[in-house]
Amino acid sequence: MSETANVWKEWTFKAYDENNWMPAKVPGCVHMDLYHNGIIPNPFYGKNESELQWIDKKDWVYQCYFDVSEELKSNSHLELVFDGLDTYADVYVNDRHILSADNMFRSWRVDVKQWLTDRDNKLTVHFRSPIHEDLPKLSRLGYGLPAANDQSDVGGLGDKKISVFARKAPYHYGWDWGPRFVTSGIWREVRLEGWSECRITDVYIRQDEVTPLIAKLTAVLEIEVTEAWEGSLHVFTESLSWTKKVDLVSGINHVELNLSIYQPRLWWCRGLGEPDLYSFKVELIGLRGSAAQKSIRTGLRTVKLVTNQDDDGTSFYIELNGVAVFAKGANHIPNDSFLTEVTYETYRHEIATAAASNMNMLRVWGGGIYEQDMFYELCDEYGLLVWQDFMFACSMYPGDEAFLLNVKLEAEENIKRLRNYACIALWCGNNEIDTAWSHYDEQAGWGWKKLYSTEQRDRIWHDYEQIFHMILPEAVNRLAPDISYWPSSPMCGLKGNEDQHAHQNSSSGDIHYWGVWHSVEPFEKYNAHVGRFMSEYGFQSFPEYESVKTYAEETDMALESEVMLAHQKHKLGNQLIKEYMDIYMREPKDFPSFLYMSQVLQAEAMKTAIEAHRRRKPYCMGSLYWQMNDCWPVASWAGMDYYGRWKALQYYARRSFSDVLLSVDDTDESRLDVYIISDMRSPIHGTLRIELLDFSGNVIWCCVGLVEVDALSGVKAISVNKEELLAGNDETSVLLVVQLEKDGTVIGSCEHYLVPFKEMKLADPTIQITEVEGSGGTRFVLETDTLAKQVRISTSTEGIFDDNYFDLIPNRPKIVTFMARSAGRTPFVFSAPAHLETCSMIDCVTRHSKDLKNSMA
Description:
By secondary structure, the chain is α+β, with helices and mostly antiparallel strands. Helices cover 20% and strands 32% of the residues. The strands form 13 sheets. A six-stranded antiparallel sheet has the order 3-2-4-10-7-8, with no helix packed on it. A six-stranded parallel sheet has the order 29-28-27-26-25-32. α5 packs parallel to α6 and α14 (591-615) packs parallel to α15 (648-656). Residues 848-857 have low confidence and may be disordered.
């Protein structure tokens, strides 16, 4: 049997070249330990990032003492296990060097029994500076490797980009949404594991064939024994059990047991069914009873990436249990620059937010980390598919033997750790490297190739192929054969010529479309650039005003202040937000209004993109915007900010990702096309109502008809001639309201305007709020006397409304429900908010000239 123990007394730490030992938190990191000891200020406040770059230039030492109980000592093996060391570390037990670590993404274990005493054993971990460790590697290589987001200048290194040499979270070196904090520390659990006789080191429930009729599975076990052992292997799940006699030899044994479950409960992603999970317990029983046991939980499903040739190019979609899934979601980055600050509640809030936003997929992006187990457990529970990148992004990497071996071991360990999670739908080699280098197209790429000689180019590409076309796919195929592998995102396919590399009009593979934002193309371009799977696109906004106040003073509340620029990591970010705002909106009256309007601007951009993608179903089968979350308080592409507060985008995404979407396409100047898109597994028979209203709520024109929508499909329900629709009415003072009813219930609705916001003739609305009787202060009715655009409800209680940033139409009361953010197991709970307030777009803009004249008079 084996047992695990946390035996550590108080941890302390110090700089290697100093003598001042201070209290430390483990798991933790040096930056947070310095902060909690009052040595450094809050890293996220003001311009403090630039003042703290000295930390990664020093070595740090962590130390603690521990006793070993008689019970632990009685084991024949006693292993010291580190689930994560960040990153270059030498470990000593009682001053004896026992291991050297060089990969943040791997675990480390050593049998230390022979070196332990009963009391006051000393454990020391010496973290070597990642900067001083990797600078010599750059020098030995003789030339730098591209690393687009390595902010070496912020770190005082000039153009020496060394992030590529470390198997460490790339975003620690900075990104265009994140700060540069190159951390060190014991970032995952450290423990003593004692075991005797035998232990189960790994259990994999391989899903060989899964249908609604039968699940044919194989329990694949890795068992370590000290000497020859005989007994029986038992596997249990619910009311089923399977048994096999085993004869094991000393060392590592691999054992398989076939399992069959008839009429299994399948695991489905959100929207398509229930995410049912099975718990499997594996036990070895010998002459003296139970010798070892291990439990895992998984969902039974078939999942694969489908890339078939068709008339348009090559498809790209996830098929789950035989159903083609339109992927709806976002790209996930780490939830904090300091990873040990991320709690279960942080993860739960993010995953619950994704599910509440009608998402069914998150992409774990390759510049962060292979996430904690609790992240994937929550995705399993909530029914969110995971597109899982390996941790490589926007850089070329070295190809020396030691680096490649490190990558191989990292890949194998993380595939084995994650392969039982039902949510894992795809393994992807890297983020944006294939398209950035574009080896087979001299004119394409990010300009990297031009910096190197032909010989250097060939070597760099050879090293790339070693990792992403050989090591990683081989590991996936061998260790998780039921999951597909995709070498790079975006990419057209493995073609070995210029057609391999993705571009914004690719008709194969996946696309990252950044013409809107980086190239300052108008929002309308989202309608023109729709690929088979849109795995990245995005637009920035500022976080909530309350969030901005955590890093800035009132004197800093200006777009170009030093603090605002310090919390805008894209070099043109604030300028681009302002430029787009000038195109689509009016002038905000003050800085808090600018923050609010930036969020609405972002949300409108993403609404345009998401609905363009969904209208092209099944040609397009995925829409993952950039990005879900933030790692610090910052202006960024995120839909919810660092503190988990929903921006306007999150509410818009909830509507645009709804399982039944009504969407109006006005790309043709002469007509409006009304679409119904359904992600339901059953057909819809309903009544479609289309009304043209003035801003006072009066119906000018109405059309009602019966519609049918097949399961998992979309239809253009009707086309309306704009001129005939308006019939002489002023297009700046009307809106189209579309509703779909089924059995007397509205199952989908939308509003559409014929002109941009800045051209609308809006009056100041008077909004009334009334509590719904008997709701306990959680439900409210909102009414207005004239159209109120993008009504925002706010409260001092942290939480969300079931709808927000919506348009309120006269004579059409709207009921909203408030859910407070819970610190318990339930993500959102009904709770009365405090200090309920509303505002609308018209409250935040400079008044019309007539209003200005009246105020002057």
